[in-house]
């Protein structure tokens, strides 16, 4: 077995994740082979298995890295927002744009692929460290005995990156008093992208419909309750 310095291990692993990112985004999980990744990085197959037990583990690492990139984009997008309404609008616009343009984000949040891969790994969670004595911390392969399942982990991450609902509710600026429902509402809107280029929505009207949906949700979420008629 080839021995690598810590610096070499970090460099090789980063190259493998980047190669996996490009290949999985272009061809999907099933059509991407381990040999495709190793050829891109100019390493042997045996070296691949010094870093990942399987293609599934690499794919999960790629999805987790893509999730972090999305969260970073969201944090940047709302940094200068001047109101809760602006924050909500920017969250929706940024996430919807990423789902439309980034196949990995779509597979992660709309197709639920991170859960499918987690199940293939027999209930383990794989994060961003190599197999052989990396820095550890939060980036480890763990069983369900010591960690919540993947969906719970994703919910925790959404809470971390979207603390705004709690703030909106604390300041009494939003009509819904449960932050998880607010987050779920924003998250559920991602599925509207599945209507694009389908018989459900005409090709030339999707953008207008998405725009109207964003406006309707944001306006309704922050509308003065006195303006809402009660049956």
UniProtKB/TrEMBL annotation:
PANTHER family the record matches: ACREF/ENVCD OPERON REPRESSOR-RELATED, ACREF_ENVCD OPERON REPRESSOR-RELATED
GO molecular function, one term: DNA binding
Gene3D superfamilies documented for this protein: Homeodomain-like (1.10.10.60), Tetracycline Repressor, domain 2 (1.10.357.10)
Record keywords, A-Z: DNA-binding
Name under which the protein is recorded: Transcriptional regulator
Residue segments, region Disordered: 121-159
Domain of life: Archaea
UniProt entry tagged with the keyword Nucleotide-binding: no
Biased composition (Polar residues): 143-153
Domain called HTH tetR-type: residue spans: 10-70
InterPro entries: Homeodomain-like_sf, HTH-type_Tx_Regulator, HTH_TetR
DNA-binding feature ranges: 33-52
Pfam families: TetR_N
């Amino acid at each position: 077995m080839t021995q690598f310095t810590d610096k070499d291990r970090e460099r090789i692993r980063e190259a493998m994740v980047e190669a996996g990112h490009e290949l999985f985004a272009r061809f999907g999980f099933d059509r991407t082979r381990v040999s495709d990744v190793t050829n891109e990085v100019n390493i042997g197959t045996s070296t691949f298995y010094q870093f990942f037990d399987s293609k599934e583990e690499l794919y999960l690492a790629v999805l987790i890295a893509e999730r972090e990139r999305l969260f970073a984009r969201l944090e940047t997008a709302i940094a200068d927002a001047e109101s809760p309404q602006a924050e909500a609008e920017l969250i929706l616009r940024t996430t919807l744009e990423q789902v439309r343009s980034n196949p990995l984000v779509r597979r992660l949040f709309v197709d639920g692929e991170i859960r499918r891969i987690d199940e293939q790994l027999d209930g383990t969670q794989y994060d961003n460290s190599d197999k052989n004595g990396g820095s550890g911390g939060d980036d480890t392969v763990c069983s369900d005995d010591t960690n919540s399942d993947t969906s719970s982990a994703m919910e925790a991450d959404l809470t971390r990156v979207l603390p705004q609902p709690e703030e909106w509710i604390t300041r009494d600026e939003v009509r819904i008093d449960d932050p998880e429902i607010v987050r779920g509402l924003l998250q559920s809107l991602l599925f509207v992208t599945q209507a694009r280029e389908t018989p459900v929505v005409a090709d030339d009207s999707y953008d207008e419909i998405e725009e109207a949906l964003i406006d309707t949700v944001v306006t309704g979420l922050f509308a003065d309750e006195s303006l809402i008629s009660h049956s």
